[in-house]
Structure formats: C-alpha cells, structure tokens
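Reply to dn_fold:

You asked what the input looked like. This is it:
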Amino acid sequence: DSIKDLDKLIESDRIEPNIEIPFELRNGREKKVVNIIGIKKDTEMYKFKDSNDNPVYLQDDGMLISSNLAKALDVNIGEKILIHNFLPNKDDRYIEVKGIVSQAFGINGYMDLDFMEKTLVDYNAINGAYVKSDANIIPDLEDIKNINSVMSTEEMVSIFYDYIDLMIVETAFLLIFSGTLGFVIIYSMSVMSINERKMEFSSLRVLGFGRNEIFGIISKENALMSIIGIIYGIPLGMTFIESIGNVFTTDLYTLDQPIGITQIILSIIFTIICLTAAQLATYRKISRLDFIEALKSRTT
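and this is what came back:
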C-alpha cells in the first residue's frame, strides 16, 4: 500500500489518499474539462462551504462542484451532469450535483474517493496524497523515484498573499481615484452654482444673510443630491460589482465576494467623507467671494 509506504518515510500527523484526474463535464451544450478530485468522505484536509458560509459535506454518491464550474455549466444542485471519461474502457456516467462550494482559486469537482473509484476509475487508482505534518518533509520526498512533485501549503499561501497584496494596492488606487473624482464633482458643482447665483446670494447678503447661512443653503442642496445619489447608487453599485465579478472570474480564481450591509455602510461613510471635504472647500470659496462688489457691478 503506497500510503503505508509513505507513512514510513516521513513524520506525519495524518495522511489522506486522493485521486485527481481530468474529465470533461457536460450539461447540455455547455462543457468544461476540469480535474475531479476524489477524497475521503471524512477528510480533514478540506472544509467545504457554500456561498453563505454554511458547511457542505461530501456524499456517498454524487459530487460537489466549485461555484465557477456551476456557472460555466449552468447547473444547479440536484441536476445531473455527464462525466465524459478519457480513461480507456471506461464509460461516461451521469453524476448528480449534491452541492456547490465556494472556491477562491481553481475550478474543480469533488467526489467521495470510494464512489469515484467505483464509477469513474479503477480501484486503488490513488495518484496523490495529502500530508499533515509540522516537520519539513519536502527534502525527504523530492528524491523518491515514484513521486513526481511535492507542493507545500505554505508555498501556496505565500503565492496567495502575494496576489492579495497586489489586489489591495489596486483597490487602494481605485478608492483614492474614486474619492478624488467625487470631491472634484461635488466641488465643481458647488462653485458653478455659486458663480451662477452670485447676484442672488448678494441680494441675500443685503437682506442680512451671513456667509454661514448662504453656505447652509448650498450645503442642503448638495446633501439632498447626495442622498438621492446614494439611494440610486447602492443598487447600481451592487450590479456593477456583480458584473465585474462575472467578467473577471476565470478558471484560475473566482471573484464572488457577496456585498453585505457592512460594505454598504462603509461605502456610505466614504461618500460622506468626500462630501464633507468638498463642502469645506466650498465654504472657503464662499468666504473669499465679495458679494457686495458683485451687487455693485450689477447696479452699474
């Protein structure tokens, strides 16, 4: 037994066999070649969850598929998909989808190891293993004849964090750009309003209105427009983000982070901050305007 032989070579807390073989999955006219991974039903190496963060478990029959695969095949839980087998002397089989799981990287199907051996491959067709160990076992396995490759989860996590760091930088740039754009739009609208209504504001000054009261008029107008913009912007923003996720979701990674109330509140707070900054700049503009001179020019 290869798993027992492997256990003798290394120090490990747990070893789980697995099978990973490519198949073509078909649902009507949709089809996709992906790796189906066979693992033990009681695996400790995988913790499957759905889009609502609820746990999903392997079944004795059927299979789990990643969310991006479900979108690619346009398939839902309870439906059957055709597994086209590339192995010689193996028939194609219809397998029921028992669950759809969230998966940030990669596109896969998952089956119980015993069920996969029974339906798609031969018995004892194990071609890999997951090893849980605190020791650095890679040097012990690299020179063994029948082991083609060894990958550490630390390396995978490191690659993942490098990618996340890049995404954070890009997101920060977009956030700064959007904040600056919002500031410029609000400030420009306020300045245009002041210039177009300078005579009106000058008349109000003559009637006894102070600069703060005039600023209050402009602030209320901007606040009303901002509230309307937020109300319409929330559904439009959610639709836009969903569209971006669909466009940029590939076989390599999935962008399907759901938008919750926390994200909406944070976006509203950010909008209010940009609005406040623009209002402060507007107040400075108002304080420097000579409304009386404008009124004199009009009279002349």
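The mean pLDDT is 84.
Hope that clears it up.
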